[in-house]
Amino acid sequence: MWGRTSGRCVSPRCPLSVTQCPLSPTASPNETLVIEYVGQNIRQVVADMREKCYAQEGIGSSYLFRVGHDTIIDATKCGNLARFIKHCCTPNCYAKVITIEAQKKIVIYSKQPISVNEEIIQDYKFPIEDTKISCLCRTESCRCTLN
Ligand SMILES: [Zn+2]
């Protein structure tokens, strides 16, 4: 089974393909699944309405994470710890969209070994916009903006 590059994961109950599963023999030992970004799967039109409502309610942070052309995961009111992962221009993790039983999910994978008590950080990869959001990561390779 070692060295397989296609098909289902070798673990009998795992729904992932061999290239998606962090436990599969072909995955890099550094690329370990850290956490799933949990929330409600909603369409773009619903996300737009919710974003306005959240602003009116004074909810400053948005936890809307795009997973496809018309699919957004909203972790604002029913998410897990993954929504608190901060941005950094030199991240130790990255987000990956995977499909399990026809449903898109976001999973956070490590890019490198992560020590105990080391903060989990990722690059938000926001699209470029005119109104910039300042980056506060203060790393040597900081891009100064998130978008
Ligand atoms: Zn930065």
From TrEMBL:
It comes from the Eukaryota. One of its GO terms (molecular function) is histone H3K4 methyltransferase activity. One of its GO terms (biological process) is methylation. SMART domains: SET. GO terms for cellular component: Set1C/COMPASS complex. Residues 21-125 form the SET domain. Keywords: Chromatin regulator, Methyltransferase, Nucleus, S-adenosyl-L-methionine, Transferase. The keyword Nucleus applies. It is found in: Nucleus. This is SET domain-containing protein. The lineage of its organism: Eukaryota, Metazoa, Chordata, Craniata, Vertebrata.
